[in-house]
Structure formats: structure tokens, C-alpha cells
Sequence to fold (392 residues):
Amino acid sequence: MEPNRFSETDLLQKYLDGTISEPESGELFERLKHNAIEDNAALEALLQKVYNQSFTEAPVISADASRRILERLVTAVQLDKPETRVRRMPSWWRYAAAVLIIAVAATAVWLVNTNKKETHPFAGNVSPSGEILSGSSRAILQMPNGEEILLDSAKGNIVQKGNFHVNNSGGKLDYEGNAAKVEYHTLTTPRGGQYRLQLPDGTAVWLNAASSITYPTAFTDHYRNVKVVGEVYFEVAQHQEQPFMVDVDGKAKVAVLGTSFNVNAYTDEQSIRTTLLEGSIIMFHDQQTVMLKPGQQAQIKNELRMNIVNADVESVMAWKNGLFRFDRAPLSEVLRQMSRWYDVGIVYEHGVPDIVFSGEIKRDLNLSQALVVLAKMGVRYRIEGKKIIVMP
Fold:
């Protein structure tokens, strides 16, 4: 059946059941955007019912989460013409602002409050009971001679040469002092790992799972050059006479003076995405040069022309803040993120429906807890060893 054959109430029910397809989801939001439905009694009754059930079964979400939900819903359904925008919220808004994302957000809060996870020394692996645990601070430092140092076991000053030393403590690698000889180090996080790094110039770096950064022990050239793969967030120390330059997996470059930005360059994603939070950066790709403003994102898909879009910064930075955060994301995107963080494989059986998600899930949940949240949205699955089998 075509999406436009369903009523708003039918489409919303499919959204809440987790059975809505991507075209149907777009249809729902378009109707909310363009139709005057504040007098739709059936829709309001459904919203009120789900709202009441949600808050009976799970605690009220935080004020910040409620604010974000409301703001995003307002943006999604706001009328195009300024003179016709809704100035007074109709009664159904207070239900819609909660229930459109409540199925994920409230369940995640409930799981955190009722399933307090113990601290495991092997977080990111499989527990003795067979539970797949969440990722943790794990990384490998590769030295110029090929030696590899496991940072989750080596602590303290792991490198010391005169007044130059590298300290590893609390999930952070810190370079201090002046290196007499410039060498190149590579910090790599495995699937199920993340790590922090302070470069010799004071630049702060966060690495997401399955990522790496290669950098010198001292910045002596005209540019401060580093190379990254995967997902990395930078807060660059300002040295105007020595711009910071990021090589994005050999496919693009980012020139910086002093700013905060995130690079997502996973090989299994459809595009390279660079998102600017503060300051300004210049993106170089092929023959293109583009300067980004805060809140903008440069996208390079299939190594073709760069496309500049307005970014959902909260979703981009969710990983650094301990969250999975989705805004009408397809199932495949959700599971790719979870696959990297929990170090599991994903297998799709034939006939898996197109399901889209909006909401937040804590990244410190065990895999089984996180999957309960997805199950609430209609995902059927089974776990076999370190694989998630997604069923129709």
C-alpha cells in the first residue's frame, strides 16, 4: 500500500510500532508539517494514550531531553511561511513532543536506572557469563620501530627520553616536553574501544572505536600535520604561525588555525563527513576548496564533489558524550554504530523491514540492554556468539 493511503493516525501508529518504512516516515513528517491537525481527535487520543502508557512504564525523561525532543519536533513540523507558524501550542503538541521519541529515550533511561552495570576489567569483550559488554578505553600505540604498546595494561610514563615523556593514565595519552628527535607514532583504537590524546602542541583529540591517528612527537614543519582514519574529534590548540592540517585517510584535507571539529571517515560509511563546531576550517578535496562555518558539515560521497549541509551537531557529537543518538536513521546506520562499539558482526536475514529510529541510547549499556531498546521499536533479532542476526 502506498504511504499516502494511510491516515496520520495510522502512520503514527506504525512509527510507534517500529514498522514504518522510510518513505512512510517522510510522509508522516510532511503531513505534520503542512496539515492543520490540531483538531484531529483520533490522533490526539492516540498520542495521549501512548504518552500515558510510556510514563507509567518508564520514568519521565530529563528536562534537557524533553527540550531537545520538543525543539526537534517543532523544527520538523513547523509551517513554511513565517506568518502562518503556530504561535500557541495546541493540546496535542505536549503529547507528540514526548511520544515521537519516547519509545527509545525513556526505555534507555529505565534501563540505566534498573540495570546498573558493574565495572568489568574486560569491558568491550565478553564477560564470563557470555554477556557482550560495552566498549571502553582501549587502544594500541605503535612506535616507529614497529613495537606495539597495549595502553589498557601499560600505565604511567611509557616513553621517556630526557625531558620528553609520554604518560598514559585514565584512558588518556599525554605528550609532554620537547622531543630531541622527531618520530611518528600511531594511536589506534580497536572495535569496542575509544581513547583520548593530547598532542605535543596541546591539541586535544578523542578517538571513537575502530579509528587511528598518526602524528609526530614534535611539530617542526610549517604545518602541524596528522593523518586520521575512522572518527576523530579535535580541539586544536591555537598557533597562528603554524596551521594544523588533517589528512583524512588520504582522500581530503582539513586546514585549521584553532577550532573544534569532528571527522567521520569510516570506510564502511557512504561518505566522509567533517563537522565544524567552533572557529573555522578549510576543506580540500580534489580541486575543491571550501570554508566551513560553525554548524556546517562537509560531505564527500564516493570521493565525488563536496556537499555542504547544516549539521545536527548533537547527533554528530553524541559518541563523545556517551550516547548513540539518532534522528530518523535507517536500521543499517544504527547497527553499524553498534557493531563498532560492541565489536560484533551484523547479519541480515532476507526480508528485514525498513525501520527508522529517533532517540538516544546510553553507550555504557551492555549489548543485550541496548538491543532491548531496539526491540521496543520493532527490531527482531537473535544473538549467536558475537553476531547479531536481524530477522524479518
In short: Residues 91-114 form the longest helix (24 residues). The chain has eight helices and 24 strands. Helices lie at 8-17, 22-34, 41-57, 63-77, 91-114, 313-316, 331-342, 367-376. The two ends are 18 Å apart (CA to CA).
